[in-house]
Amino acid sequence: MKRYNVTVNGNIYQVEVEEVKGEFTSAPQPVASQAPKAAPQAQKAAAPKKSNASGEKVTSPMPGTIVKINATNGATVKKGDVLFVLEAMKMENEIMSPVDGVVADVNVAKGAAVNTGDLLAVIG
Question: 106: domain CATH number?
Answer without folding.
Answer: 2.40.50.100
